[in-house]
Amino acid sequence: MLVYNTLTRKKEEFKPINPPNVSMYVCGPTIYDYFHIGNGRTFVMSDIIRRYLIYKGYDVKFVMNLTDVDDKIIRKANEENITSAELTERYEAAFMDDIKKFKMKPADVYPKATNHMQEIENIIEKLENKGIAYNVDGNVFYNVGKFESYGKLSGKNTDDLEVGARIEINQEKQNPLDFSVWKKAKSGEPYWESKWGDGRPGWHIECSAMSMKHLGETIDIHAGGNDLIFPHHENEIAQSEAATGKEFAHYWMHFGFLNIDKQKMSKSLGNFFTARDILNQYPAEALRLLFVQSHYRSPLNFSRELIESAQKGTEKLNNLIRLLLKGIDKVDGSEVEVDYENKYKLFTEAMDDDFNSAKATSVIFDFVREANKLIVENKNLNSEFYQKAVTFLRATAEDVLGIIDFNEFNIDDANTDDSWILEEIEKRNKAKYDRNWKLADEIRNSLADKGFILEDSKNGTSYKMK
């Protein structure tokens, strides 16, 4: 199994520290607002990576932090004239609600920064004792110059970073690149007592403390969006490895940016969507299918046309599931040969190659087309066909990718006999192949009169009730 490591810029064989155990830390949201659809991609794809590791037999401990003390939180709480705690409590509840709608497996731990102040102070104290962190009147900074390999994750050369461009100018710093690990309390801000005086932690030190607390000083996988490579993850490495003298994470995984209609998502452009907005309009499975149809490291374009195409793909999957559930208890019937061993092999080979979900998804839809054809051509298949088909889809499309949910199908779905629709769709497909457009239109119109709408997409033809 190969994993692309941002740190080494190449695919590497996945070798956990303590197999079959795998430790995985994902940078979660700052809980001051609803998370946007780009964050949603990061969260869903990290969920799928975790699911696949479980599929491979690993015991994954999955930690996703919640940042609950931050400049943005303080600013918004002051604007609303409420405490930071009241604000973060509201959006923590919203986050939990939204990831549940996204069909994400709950994390094993959702640590919050405010519950780890002692661990944060312990790391800062270690850095200070080593002469790597320094205190200036209650503000404690990390001295980047004391960490020789600073920039190894992002590939940035410290000499090339211009003062004032990417690095905030601060006269208290010994070097413009130095970053805060403890911030002196200001009026109107929440604070905690410490040996350096009242204050609060810097953003980067929070993740180091939470990761070490729940997963140990060295972990298998650290993941997050591409935008976190620098400075957040770069700074996490610097302070963690300087404090412990150990490698912080073996594999660094980063998820590509999401654009809206081929433009960068921005409130100023009016194309900013929260995951909650989209989930109120489209099923979670359709969004997950849209995400998995691109490689997790690649940029992803989001548009109404693409999400609606993905929705048609999930409808095609759901149509097949209904047919399979109807036939799963059949006792007698003819046998057909389906090479499931090869299908599992193709799916696994795709996911083993740096979690190539796009290729894995194509394996599933190839199977959907094959299964539909077998059902149309064989009027009386035996139960073994239906059972093995359901098992394959459960293991791959549901348990790993999460693009279907068998729990959403009820007894009425299984008892309604609409297998004849597939025959009509096959007739229409043949008519289209023969360029008999008149017959193709007649079949579409006939089904529409009976209450069924046909929808064509790159994944084939699906149908739904009016």
Description:
With 466 residues, the chain is α/β, with parallel strands linked by helices. It folds into two domains: 2-269, Rossmann fold, CATH 3.40.50.620; 304-465, Four Helix Bundle (Hemerythrin (Met), subunit A) (Up-down Bundle). The chain contains 15 helices and 15 strands. It has helices spanning 37-55, 71-80, 84-101, 117-129, 203-215, 229-244, 275-279, 284-292, 304-327, 340-352, 357-377, 383-398, 411-415, 420-433, 437-449, and strands at residues 2-5, 10-13, 21-26, 59-64, 133-136, 139-142, 179-184, 199-201, 219-225, 249-255, 258-260, 263-264, 300-302, 452-457, 460-465. A hairpin with a 2-residue loop joins β14 and β15. α10 runs antiparallel to α11 (357-377). The chain is elongated and about 80 Å long. It starts with a strand and ends with a strand.
